[in-house]
Amino acid sequence: MKNHLLLLGCLMIISCQPTSTLFDDALCIENITTIDAINGLRESQTVIIKAGKIFKISPTSDLPLSPENDIVDGTGKFLIPGLWDAHVHFAYMEELAPRMHDLFLAYGITSLRDTGGKIDFVRKWKAQSLANPTTTPRLMIAGPLLDGLPNVYDGSDPMRPPLSVGLGSKEAVEQKIEELDSLGVDLLKAYEMLTPEQFSAATALGQEKGLKVTGHVPLSMDVISASNAGLNSMEHMRNLELSCASNAEELLQQRRQLLSEGRQDPGGVLRSRIHQTQRATAIENYDPKVAEKVLQVLAKNQTWQIPTITLSTAFTELPFATEEWQSSFAYLPDSVEQRWKQGIATVAAQEKTTFQKNYSKWLMNMVKQVHSAGIDMMAGTDTPIFFLTPGRSLHEELAVLVTAGLSPLDALKTATLNPARYFGLEQELGSIEEQKWADLLLLDANPLEDITNTQRIRAVVKQGNLINREQLDQLLAKLSSEK
Length: 483
Ligand SMILES: [Zn+2]
What we know:
Layout: H1 2-16, E1 26-36, E2 40-50, E3 53-59, E4 70-73, E5 78-81, E6 83-88, H2 100-106, E7 109-114, H3 119-131, E8 138-141, E9 145-147, E10 164-166, H4 170-182, E11 187-190, H5 196-209, E12 212-215, H6 223-228, E13 233-235, H7 240-243, H8 248-261, H9 267-284, H10 288-301, E14 304-306, H11 309-312, H12 314-317, H13 323-327, H14 334-349, H15 354-372, H16 392-403, H17 408-414, H18 417-422, E15 440-443, E16 457-462, E17 465-468, H19 469-481
The protein binds zinc ion.
């Protein structure tokens, strides 16, 4: 009897063991810790990737795999969703554009939002991405900055390449949006010289077309009226300081006066004059009560923020001054590397102004408050502006978001789930869940313990295609050799 019971027990153990499964044409990552903004951290998971998507995710103990599967051992490693850089410009430095897709991918950036450039130029890089979805980041494009007259990015000097169109009337704005929509843009970008009437026309038509309008708050408006008029997101928190000052109303009247007086000047000159007249004063007159009202409106209207902290605090923090940062210049064209190194030496040698110091402090504080107010943020860089290497700079932005007060998981959210939500793609991207695209990063260390661990990339998965460290290094070596 005892023997029988023993035998029965053995049989039960055998029959309870799930049978090992073979997944045809699949990539299986076994025993890995997954981290995403919806599910947090899950240990010992098996992730099955098939036809570019996450086919199945299950605790490893519940899903024994047949050894015939294509298995990646994830023991001791971490899996996060592929990262987005939500503020890039392919058209800013045309000689750099041909290597941007590869550079982003090598640094684990699997999706991009291009926030301004000539439509034909950015469409070309979007087409390349669509044609090569397993080896190229996806690219969402805004086309040119929609600016008023005189427009800022008019091509008049190398600092202001022709990224914008200068539009003289409300009708011209509408016509341009019709044209851009027919050419397949994913969003619109409004710029600083638009009149309130032009701006409202842009947001109204954008809404009709299902295109989000991002931008810089026009100098002729304040943040509350721009948000109420339908601005969906703000880049760099640009001109937010002007509306958070105790004398915000006075500053607005002064700006309108300056705009009217400077109509004959080049847009870049006029904008600089206004910024120089008002920004330092606005920071000095920062009023927490006024700011609170502004943030309440931004929260109510769900006006997203892309603070680009790395860019906006670069004069004081000099993120590009390190040897490690400049080692990434090896992947840029020789001419760019030389120019950037000289430019950095110049910036580093300059005495930091009181305004620069105050502005950096103001911005870090503002990011924290925006986060506390429940306003959604996205991580973006503005690369390749201001010596910010494509790819490398997004990891810096994640780190400074944590410095500003976000938890590492919240920082990751700004570069994964949030951009997916922004584009209405949250059913397809942004977390590690079944049926979503397999855009993933395999890391050697836990980014929740130290956000800089996002840089310890063991492999990138783009729409199911696993690119391992060796292949990523080959990609980078190819860029270095083509200088
Ligand atoms: Zn930009």
